[in-house]
Amino acid sequence: METLNCRGLACPQPVLRTKQFIESNPQALEFTVVVDNAASAQNVLRFVESQGCTASLQQTGSEFEIKAVRSQETMGEPAEKDVAETSQKTLVLITKNTMGSGDDLLGAGLMLNFLKTINEMGESLWRLIFLNSGVKLTIEGAETLPVIQQLEAEGVSVLVCGTCLNHFNLLEQKKVGETTNMLDIVTSMQLADKVISP
Questions:
Q1: Which residues in the chain are classed under CATH 3.40.1260.10?
Q2: 155 partner at 20 to 30 Å CA-CA among 12, 83, 90, 119?
Q3: C-alpha angle 136/19/93, rounded to 5°?
Q4: What are the pLDDT tens digits along the chain (198 aa)?
Q5: What whole-number distance in Å separates Cα of residue 179 and Cα of residue 129?
Q6: Which residues in 28-174 belong to E strands, given as ranges?
């Protein structure tokens, strides 16, 4: 079984290394990826599952092992990620926890109102991505959390930057969405028909 040593690599390198391995070794039945932070572990786990693998995650001290097993059906033919089938896909990129500049209290209220109103986009609203201080909107105790959870329950995809969560020491406090990486973010922007950043 091949082992990919991705210790010490910053996001999205562990996912990119894993992607390169899968593409270069289409007949590999099993492989293991070793990383040294929880965000990378979640990102790699989600990625290999999106490629048709059965995967397990084990933590030993500060290290994480993702063991992946590919099915015969998907060998040599990675699975595509599910993409909402709508006439138009709108991606909303939220890069801070306030809206506008000048007064943070006002900005926080405006962001809450924006998120409460965003479903007026209708079926074209496809995905929300939270970056930088925007990840603070997804954590336990945030006034915006129930609104984002409701959007996710209604079928809107929610991705939250793992590097940003780690930077603010908030990974364990995230309560909505999938922890993501820059590869997913770039791919999402390519797939979207329209990208909005409030």
A1: 90-196
A2: 12
A3: 30
A4: 789 999 998 878 899 899 999 989 888 889 999 999 888 898 899 899 988 899 999 999 999 999 999 876 655 554 444 444 446 899 999 999 999 989 999 999 999 999 999 988 999 999 999 999 999 999 999 999 999 999 999 999 999 999 999 999 999 999 999 999 998 999 999 999 999 998
A5: 10
A6: 30-35, 53-60, 63-70, 90-94, 125-130, 157-161
